[in-house]
Request: fold
Amino acid sequence: MTQVGTGAEAADARGAGPRRTSRPGGWAWGICWLMFASTTLNYMDRQAIALVGPQIKSQFDLDNVGFGWVLAAFQLTYAFFQWPAGYLVDRWDVRRTYAAAVLWWSVAGMATAFAPALGILMLTRALLGAGESFNWPCALRVTAGILPPSDRSLGNGIFNSGAAIGAVLTPLIVTPLAAWMGWRSPFVILGLAGWIWVVAWLSLTRGAKLEESTRPRIRRRGGSLGKVARRSFAAVLFLASATALSGLQFGLPAVWWSVAVLMIGILIVSLVLPARELAGSDWTQSLGEVVRLRRFWVAAAVGVTINVTWHFLVNWMALFFQEERRLGLLVGGMVSALPFLAADLGNLGGGALSRRWVRLGMSTSAARKATMAICLALTSCAVWVGLAQTEAVVIGLLCLTALGTAGYMVNFFAFAQDVSPQHTGLVIGYLGGLGNLFAAGFMPLAGWISQGTWRFAPNFLLVGLLPFAGLLVLLFCWSNHEEDKPG
Reply:
């Protein structure tokens, strides 16, 4: 696969943008670093609320379970919109889509600062999740288009390291501002930074070819869905709606179950129905092709387990330091930056290690798997956090946990890009949606567990061991010879 060259050598005689070369050049890596900046802002916008958790809880009179549902409001829409986001990214111009998404979530993030009541606060977090759901499908679509397979883990590591850097910078920026000016002020500043990124992205990518030119564009097929397919999808929608309405009696948990019924129900219907029933719609036919790939279900198992671990660290670690370790708003928030600094090393190190082993002669798949196994050994350090007595040991264990989790995730992303190259955005969107769906369900559960006798210790035990289930599925079930399209 040929790739984009450097900016200096890429401009053709007619100014049509970068031309293809046999290896990625400085231009391609520069795009990865620009996406690193968007991912940094993405995580700063979402994590800011975790840093001001004590102030949010105080103002809106919340316990940890209630605060968990505030976190879940973002996570649920982030999960739900990732699969249509992935589908749309496969079909829309990725340059404009990326810019629109960043602008959307920046405005939603700023709106958080003006929320007068708990319901409005949760609404702004839900809107933030809808916009941010486009970041990973867009970024992974771009790296799949401008980098060869052997370099994608590193490219993914570069842009994904923005998550860790964002998590590092957020405590350093948000907690001092919140302590000085109140919890609302950081959201305005972060939103304005997103507007600046949009201007930079549109300027620096003008005329650039960000998608793989050899990949056929997917066109909408004529006709309509089969009768059985229409009735099956309607039944899923009805069941999801009925579950949502039961929220009037059962409360917020019913909302999570509604989204779960809709997302998982659509997958099951697409899997069990004959392909001819799905052929009348571009989206259903594409999804039907994807869910018939064993690789998709393997990647789903890996994604769900590691997302629960990562999002627990992102959303609860600051509160753990602030309240359970009794370090206070400012110090606890600042200390929570250290594990995410280690995570940044994991993003780059996990990609670089698998790339190094490939160049030494190991197959790409084997190199990724070996790297992921080493990374999970580090992630399992979370098991001991609840038993540690000194702050230094706690911080050290969480640094190793975050380092391993990040290194694991960048190699998982590379596997996800191999599930079905023709439907990269759809695959990434649905895998991300499933991962965040279960992470959203875990947020209030983690809050409930933290209010028990053992406080946060059982949570750390769970998130330290859960990803091993996904790794076992990957090691024993991933096929290196599966066709991109089922027969």
Q: What stands out?
A: Residues 226-280 form one domain. Confidence is low (pLDDT under 50) at residues 1-22, 213-222, 483-487. The longest strand covers residues 3-4. DSSP finds 22 helices and two strands in the chain.
